[in-house]
Design brief:
The protein has helices spanning 6-13, 17-25, 51-58, 66-71, 85-91, 96-108, 112-119, 128-144, 148-161; strands at 3-5, 33-35, 38-42. The longest helix is centred in the C-terminal third of the chain and has 17 residues, at 128-144. By secondary structure, the protein is mostly helical. The protein has a 3-stranded antiparallel β-sheet with strand order 1-3-2. Helix 1 (6-13) crosses helix 2, helix 6 runs parallel beside helix 8 and helix 8 runs antiparallel to helix 9 (148-161).
């Protein structure tokens, strides 16, 4: 049988020599033998698989479905090309989803007053995802405008909708 050194195995496998030595010491290279401070490795030995990669491939991490992400905060949950957010938001069918996306766009482009204006009518929407999205946008945009009581009251609505105890007061003007 022909043998190679750890340095040669490292070159063939595209890893460091220290990594080859560790693989040999862990018993992951079949037929590898230690002699003195060195290792001799069968020339035909394959590079051992990385068990971390095998675990990742066997059980991929669960991901939310694209439709679940798109229902809440549709602009944030959509893959649009950079610089095309407005074009994407305006391409949505007229309705609450489009209105939420335009409100998101206003907020994330620094126009908190416009975000509040666009989100306000959606605070009463019958679509739960649109209403929750509008509440969040309205609350954070209100904070940016210094309207703490409006933000507190709207976040109280969110807590109530989620079945949590409401806190704080304030009237949405």
């Amino acid at each position: 049988m022909e043998f190679i050194t750890a340095a040669e195995a490292a070159r063939r496998w595209g890893v460091s020599e220290r990594r080859v030595q560790r693989l040999c010491a862990d018993g992951r290279v079949p037929g590898a033998e230690r002699f003195g401070h060195a290792w001799r490795i069968p020339a035909a030995a394959p590079k051992p698989d990385d068990p971390r990669r095998a675990a990742e491939a066997a059980a991929p991490a669960p991901r939310p479905s694209p439709t679940a992400c798109a229902a809440l905060m549709p602009l944030m949950g959509s893959p649009f090309s950079p610089g095309r957010a407005r074009e994407y938001a305006e391409s949505l069918d007229p309705g609450p989803r489009r209105d939420v996306a335009l409100s998101e766009l206003a907020y994330f482009t620094g126009d908190a007053a416009e975000a509040v204006r666009l989100a306000r009518p959606l605070l009463q929407a019958t679509d739960g995802a649109a209403r929750l999205s509008a509440c969040l946008i309205f609350s954070y945009a209100s904070l940016a405008l210094g309207r703490i009581n409006d933000a507190r009251a709207t976040l109280g609505r969110v807590r109530g909708a989620l079945g949590e105890k409401t806190v704080g007061g304030g009237v949405i003007a």
